[in-house]
């Protein structure tokens, strides 16, 4: 009986953590970043469950439990097979690794200069600011107009930085760039 209560309370904690992760997946900046990334929404959710939820839970979560948490594509239903969870996790990890290798390969070939990474640092810093603002506001019971405006201004700044960054990343020949 005691073990049954323990399992139920553990599942409740996991559901609460999953709910928080699902909210993060709905944030406007995250959606923009995810849409431009090499990760599908399912792969991103799986990666979050594997890394973030287990760390926040504070104990190892079995892959069966992780699989039971994940959404089913196209439905509001929960749970996939452990095999499906593991395949998606493997795909997500492979895509992240390939992204890093692609950036380094382009740098090696001289198609990216090392200075290209500086704007990434600026965007990353702004995203960090945005996350801190959202965490602070999440603790408030009522948001002021100033609070809402702060979030909107930060979101617009990040979107603008991302648009400028993606334009500067366009792979073009020197001749093509000079014609523009």
Describe the secondary structure blueprint for this structure.
Layout (H helix, E strand, L loop, with lengths): L1 H24 L2 H8 L5 H17 L5 H7 L12 H27 L9 H21 L6 H24 L5 H6 L1
Low-confidence stretches: 1-5
Counting helices, strands and paired strands, the structural category is: mainly alpha
> Rough shape?
flat
Number of helices: 8
What is the total tally of β strands?
Answer: 0
How large a portion of the residues is in β-strands, by DSSP E?
A: under 5%
Q: What fraction, in percent, of the residue positions are helical? A: over 70%
Summarize model confidence as the mean pLDDT: 81
End-to-end distance, in Å?
73 Å
Q: What is the rounded Rg? A: 20 Å
| Main beta-sheet strand count, sense and barrel state | none
Count of the separate structural domains:
2
What oligomerization state is this entry in?
single chain
**Order of secondary-structure elements:** HHHHHHHH
Would you summarize the structure shown here?
With 180 residues, the protein is an all-alpha fold.
Task: Explain the overall architecture.
By secondary structure, this protein is mostly helical. It has helices spanning 2-25, 28-35, 41-57, 63-69, 82-108, 118-138, 145-168, 174-179. It folds into two domains: 1-111, no CATH class; 113-173. Helix content is 74%, strand content 0%. The termini are far apart.
Describe this protein with a few key phrases:
single chain; 180 residues; mainly alpha; 2 domains; 8 helices; flat; disordered N terminus
């Amino acid at each position: 009986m005691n073990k049954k209560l323990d399992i139920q309370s553990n599942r409740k904690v996991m559901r609460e953590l999953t709910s928080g992760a699902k909210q993060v997946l709905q944030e406007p900046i995250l959606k923009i970043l995810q849409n431009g990334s090499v990760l599908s929404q399912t792969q991103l959710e799986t990666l979050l469950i594997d890394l973030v939820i287990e760390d926040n839970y504070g104990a190892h979560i079995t892959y069966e439990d992780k699989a039971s948490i994940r959404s089913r594509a196209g439905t509001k239903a929960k749970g996939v097979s452990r095999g499906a969870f593991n395949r998606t996790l493997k795909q997500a990890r492979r895509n992240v690794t390939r992204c890093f290798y692609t950036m380094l390969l382009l740098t090696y070939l001289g198609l990216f200069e090392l200075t290209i990474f500086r704007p990434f640092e600026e965007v990353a810093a702004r995203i960090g600011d945005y996350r801190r603002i959202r965490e602070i506001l999440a603790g408030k019971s009522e948001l002021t107009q100033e609070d809402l405006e702060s979030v909107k201004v930060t979101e617009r700044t990040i979107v603008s930085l991302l648009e400028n960054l993606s334009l500067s990343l366009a792979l073009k020949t020197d001749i093509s760039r000079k014609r523009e």
